[in-house]
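A quick aside before the break. I want you to see a complete sequence-to-structure record at least once, exactly as it would be stored in a machine-readable document. Don't worry about memorizing anything.
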Amino acid sequence: MQSNQLVAVHCGELTKSYGSGDAQVHALRGVNLDIRYGELLMLVGPSGCGKTTLLSIIGGILDPDGGQCSVLDHDFQHMGTGDRARFRGGSIGFVFQSFNLLPSLTAVENVAVPLLINGMPRRDAAARARAVLDTVELGGRADALPAQLSGGQQQRVAIARALVHEPKLIVCDEPTSNLDHAAGHQVMAILRRVAQSPDRALVVVTHDARIFEFADRIAHMDDGRIVDVSGGTSERPQ
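That is the input. The structure line, written in tokens, reads:
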């Protein structure tokens, strides 16, 4: 990864608080961070330091109280509710620790959901979903229900669902925390390949030190601020 890569996400002096008065909690206290195309950036830090709040702002789920967040050259604060939802549906993929698969749908049907929401014909959506399941090494389990899959397999289905509409930005919240070591590394190897695309960026919130080796850069958060950014491929923690 080169330091002159184009910026996919720019966060400038972001602030966010919850509550008011004596109960007010300052989740973000002036966050500055750039996420570049072609990289996998991890956000790490203690619980309650603001990682998930920052990820939610980047994903267009929360609005900041102050500062600027530009995502793929768009500013959510200047977008209406409908435009924001359409942008997220077309340009951002989400991966969560709890998988969030629909239990009554097969793997291929779960993966096809974003395409159907975006108006793709059912047959075309299913064909695209099967192709993406092949890329995460689950083509042979396309017709299985979530309950028939291991945790690692369910997370790979969730990754396929996040990738199926070919988003430019993928945000992941603790994608390996419910997985054993082997399954977690398999999931991260897939995300690592995804992040190597020069027109895609990937950001992962994690407490899992086992997967730090997959990061291009690691942004360390504490008390609502980015306190250090380490990395570059040659400097990944071992």
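Two observations worth writing down. Helices lie at 51-58, 81-91, 107-117, 122-135, 151-163, 181-195. The chain has a mean pLDDT of 91. We'll return to this after the break.
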